[in-house]
Design goal:
Layout lengths: L10 H20 L6 H13 L2 E2 H8 L3 H13 L3 E5 L7 E5 L3 H19 L5 H24 L2
Antiparallel strand pairs: 1-3, 2-3
Helix pairs in contact: 1-5, 3-4
């Protein structure tokens, strides 16, 4: 029996496939830097939000805390991040980047801009704004559903 599904009309399929291809291209471009897309996502969260706990990073990245721990262990081993006790709770560890990140971060941003440029080739500013608005609405719809189920 062949499995049937109308993939051509599935926003989840379109978004998932697009995200997979974007991550695949970023990983290909990142390979010479010695850092992975998942590690870049950790650095991006730290750049956006500042120091974070492991639990907060897992929530930011929407992945399991145990997965974050493995990523952070590798990043700490490679000198990208360091853990230090939170000032208000010494049992809680906060994550911050090291000085090693700065020159590599500039390269990561440049690579990200290359991938973004390739991915959005031929799209007008209006189309990009529409795409952003539509994806924001999809995300907000899903976040509203997520909070209703709790």
């Amino acid at each position: 029996m062949a499995l049937q599904y109308d993939f051509q009309n599935s926003p989840s399929f379109w978004i998932g496939l697009t995200n997979h291809l974007l991550e695949q291209e970023m990983n290909r471009k990142l390979a010479p830097t010695g850092i992975t897309m998942r590690q870049v996502q950790v650095l991006a969260a730290l750049s956006l939000f500042g120091e974070r706990s492991q639990v907060e990073l897992a929530d930011d990245l929407r992945i399991e805390p145990s997965t974050v721990v493995r990523v952070l262990d590798r990043m700490e081993r490679d000198g990208w991040i360091e853990r230090h006790p939170a000032p208000t709770d010494r049992r809680k560890k906060l994550i911050r980047t090291t000085d090693k990140v700065e020159p590599t971060w500039k390269r990561i941003v440049a690579l990200g801009e290359e991938v973004r440029s390739a991915a959005t080739k031929g799209l007008s500013k209006t189309e990009l704004k529409s795409l952003q608005a539509l994806l924001t609405r999809v995300r907000e719809n899903l976040e509203a559903t997520e909070h209703r189920d709790v």
